Amino acid sequence: MSRPIAAWNPLDWSLTHGVIPYGVLVIGFAALLALAVSRSRHWWSRRLPCAVVPAVGLTVLLQITVDDWWQPFPDGLPHRVTFWIGIGILGVCLAGFRMPPLPWRGRAAAAVGAAVVLVMSASQVNRHFDQYPTPRVLLAPWIGRTEALTIGKDPHTLAAPPGRTLSEVWHKPAGLPAKGTISTTPIPGTKSGFKARDAYVYLPPAYQASPRPLLPVLVLMAGQPGGPADWVNSGGLQEQMDGFAASHEGLAPVVVVVDQTGSTWSNTLCMDSRIAKAQTYLAQDVPDWVHDRLQTGTGRTAWSIGGLSLGGTCALQLAVNAPQVYGSFLDISGQDEPTLGSHGKTVDTAFGGDEAAFDAVDPLHVMARQKFPDTAASFVVGASDGEYGPQQQKVYAAAVKAGMKAKFGTVPGGHDWNTFRAGLADNIPWLAQQTGLIR
């Protein structure tokens, strides 16, 4: 059997499995060994220890800075990631201490060796998170293309009658495009004042038809650090949604990937607090913009919200704090409560130490005092995720107790893009069922 044509395109070669990452690993260790070994006794007695000690110290300092002081994201650096960052630092330190007595050619060789070690380090970190599975994804900010957003209103629309799904009354017209479109667009914080980065909008093939079917809407959020582009690039959003549409005569949800943090390293907690009015943005500004610019299904049963990691926590928050907007949600590897790194820091920063104000919007507290019999929930986590797995189980149990139509599932992987991609792929049919697209 011949290989798929895409497999011959270097842009589609795997950076996380197979020949490339293992080749980089072998060459990288060879470079590290070459930097670490010398015939000079002076090297072994003085220069090598002088390189190793600061490398270890800088690695430890980095982890302490990130996990304990800076806390740019709720979960700390995984030990495997810290190890590989440390290897990269070690390569640079070894090269630095080798250079002084060497001629210019030797110094150039040491610099190249350090660069190779850094590439190996970055490759192994990428293998852990699987954020850049191919060169195409890695280069997406430069080679990726988007299309102009279709914002005109069609005078003829198609809605499902009571008791029936949209797919049961839809008939695919001739000449319908085989694939949907991805566009970027600003969604202003008109009511919230929130300054968000541009959103990505996926419109399925059926959106281009006339009469236009009133498709359901999925509001999707990435994690932190991150942004809306992550779902499009690392998450393969268009490929996933186009695949579903191809099996359903062009029908798929309209997907709006929004920015709930404002920047790569920010964390708004998806709440209305001293930090930002992020809940108002997600519960009012985003739906208002969609209703104004697009033609979609209306009402909470046609709207779902989802996300990964911090975005998954946000999806749960919006589902229980704005149930009039979102009738279903997908929580992939989310947390059991919104956090800036610790409960105390979260309450102090966001609410000035007011525990009651935090409890008023914290999902576990909301579900403990309120029932949600008309909300559908899906919780997904990596089977080997020892940190977020127990938290997801806790939230799932609370959702069931609150009367939600909830389900819990695991997919192979940890807290990485293998899990996030699979979590969405497994739940696209479920989301389509909850929003009345298919039976």
From TrEMBL:
- Give the transmembrane ranges: 19-36, 48-66, 81-97
Q: Which UniProt keywords apply?
A: Membrane, Transmembrane, Transmembrane helix
InterPro entries named in the record: AB_hydrolase_fold, Esterase-like, Mycobacterial_A85_antigen
GO MF annotation terms: acyltransferase activity, transferring groups other than amino-acyl groups
Q: Which residues form a coiled coil?
A: none
The question of whether Transmembrane helix is a record keyword is answered with: yes
Q: Show the Gene3D superfamilies listed in the entry.
A: alpha/beta hydrolase (3.40.50.1820)
Specify whether Membrane is a keyword of the entry: yes
Report the protein name in the record: Enterochelin esterase-like enzyme
Question: Which species expresses this protein natively?
Answer: Kitasatospora atroaurantiaca
